[in-house]
Amino acid sequence: GYERRRQAARSTYLSLLRPDSSNSPLSPEQRVTIQYRFLLGAPKPEQRAALEAEQAEHGDLLQVAVPESYETLFPKIVAAWRWAVGHYDFAFWVHADDDAFVR
Questions:
Q1: Could you tell me which residues are beta bridge partners of residue 40?
Q2: Among the four residues 20, 53, 69, 72, which has the most C-beta atoms within 10 Å?
Q3: What is the radius of gyration, based on Cα positions, of the chain?
Q4: Which domain holds residue 65?
Q5: What's its membrane topology (predicted)?
Q6: What percent of the chain has pLDDT over 90?
Q7: Which is more confident, 83 or 12?
């Protein structure tokens, strides 16, 4: 499921974003701070405990109070944008789905 996809991302390309990553192709002087979150809509009751445990372990889940469905994708992104604006001072904001490749 999606937990496996998130874990695959964490253990591969997202691991390069860690400041202490020895696998990064960039020198310490070239690195920038990149924050990422996995955006989730409101979970079903049976998913809550697993998502709380995943969040406690990784701290990279952003759950918004929007039902989880394809039809609510835009309101979910708007909720994430509002959260990001309230928590970070950033020059760029990127949204990508798990089936997208950003170059």
A1: 63
A2: 72
A3: 15
A4: 2-87
A5: Single-pass type II membrane protein
A6: 59
A7: 83
CA-CA distances (angstroms) from residue 7 to 28, 30, 61, 84, 93?
Answer: 25, 26, 12, 22, 22
Q: Is residue 97 part of a domain?
A: no
Task: Give domain status of residue 95, yes or no.
Answer: no
Q: How many domains does the chain have?
A: 1
Whole-number Å distance between alpha carbons of 23 and 94: 23
Rounded to the nearest integer, the mean pLDDT of the chain is: 88
Q: Are the C-beta atoms of 79 and 64 separated by less than 8 Å?
A: yes
H/E/C letters for each residue in 31-46?
A: CCCCCCCEEEEECCHH
Range of weakest confidence among 2-6, 26-30, 43-47, 52-56: 26-30
